[in-house]
Amino acid sequence: MSESTGLSALADVETLETHEVQEPRIGSDGRSYATGKRKNAVARVWIKPGTGQIIVNGRSYDTYFARPVLQMIINQPFSLANREGQYDIWCTVKGGGLSGQAGAVRHGVSRALTYYEPDLRSVLKKAGFLTRDSRVVERKKYGRRKARRSFQFSKR
Predict the structure, then answer these.
(1) Fewer CB in a 10 Å sphere around the end CB: N or C, the chain?
(2) CA 95 to CA 32: how far, in whole Å?
(3) pLDDT digit string (tens) for 116-141?
(4) Which pLDDT tens digit goes with each residue over 23-64?
(5) Are 73 and 103 in contact (CB under 8 A)?
(6) CA nearest 70: which of 103, 42, 38?
(7) In 3D, which of 135, 137, 130 has the Cα closest to residue 36?
(8) How many whole angstroms separate alpha carbon 119 and alpha carbon 13?
(9) pTM higher than the cut 0.85
């Protein structure tokens, strides 16, 4: 029995060593690319060192996402990693509503940050920014008014 636990401990050490030696994924143009998803929204995000400028679908992010809550969602990975104002972001977002799009951009930014700086992966993963939020709208069922709401009961 001690042999099997010893072998699994060796396997754990080998996997740890392979995970520690992550190299940055930076393109020839000096940018990292990642895709973020949330609900029905998909965001393509490019990140490079800069002054903190964020452009979403060709517009500034504070005009595209007018609500402060959505702007805060996008800036969460940077504030968590202490990298505010150090990277320029250029992204395109399609599908879903504004809330889903903001979540998709956050997911994409987090992934692109880990590609640019692999040391930030543990911090962002612990906060849950690298996990795709799989919650989507439930489909409508037949014999129901909505997904779960039934039609109003009438005794007569």
Answers:
(1) C
(2) 23
(3) 999 999 999 999 999 999 999 999 99
(4) 888 888 989 999 999 999 999 999 999 999 999 999 999 999
(5) yes
(6) 103
(7) 130
(8) 19
(9) no
